[in-house]
Amino acid sequence: MPELASLFAFALICLVMVLTPGPNMVYMFCAALGITALVMAVPYVYDALRLAGALYLLYLAWQSVRPGGRSPFQVRDLPKDSPRKLFMMGFITSLLNPKIAVMYLSLLPQFIAPEGHGSVLAHSLILGTTQIIVSVSINALIVFMAGAIAVFLGERPLWQVLQRWLMGTVLAGLAVRMLAEGRR
């Protein structure tokens, strides 16, 4: 079982992730199994995952704060599609999006501390389940409040800028932490 402080920190990061577009829960179980197998089989894989994850987080941070970047909350006109088409688009996007797997591979390892606290697989599954609970809860709220949120955020350009910089800062901070962190 992960330490409570680590689990809370992970849940907070999941909250930030679910409030910004991108990662979801499709690859959680595969990533948990894959991380466990890789870390157990090849000790230096953790370092490679940590470095790759940090570089990816820095890339995402830059994408959110770069000049000309757009807030994900910026209101745009979209064509009307049927509910079935929208569901299928989301489902297929989730299944085929490699960024999700990379995000899990870059985020999960820094919260796994198997020494004296259980197995890597158990930690991965607990963290993944935490992410799913946070994501489903927040996404359900967003679905029910989407129209009001879009109007609220669309009328406040400063919020869009702050959100981009907050997301970029959090991602860059995680990347720096991963780079500074020694091997577990």
- Specify the overall morphology: globular
Low-confidence stretches: 22-26
Question: What is the mean pLDDT?
Answer: 75
How many domains, in number, for the residues?
Answer: 1
Please summarize the sheet with the most strands: none
Count of helical regions:
7
Order of helices and strands: HHHHHHH
Number of strands: 0
How far is the first residue's CA from the last residue's CA? 16 Å
Rg over CA atoms, rounded to whole Å, is 17 Å
Class inferred from helices and paired strands: mainly alpha
Strand content: under 5%
Into which percent range does the helicity of residues fall? over 70%
How does this structure look, described?
This protein is mainly α. The chain has one domain. It has 7 helices and no strands. Helix 3 (45-65) crosses helix 5 (98-107) and helix 3 (45-65) runs antiparallel to helix 7 (157-180). The longest helix has 35 residues, at 120-154. It is globular, with a radius of gyration of 17 Å. Residues 22-26 have low confidence and may be disordered.
Quick tags:
mainly alpha, 7 helices, globular, 184 residues
How would you summarize what this structure contains?
The chain has helices spanning 4-19, 28-41, 45-65, 83-96, 98-107, 120-154, 157-180. With 184 residues, it is an all-alpha fold. The protein is globular, with a radius of gyration of 17 Å.
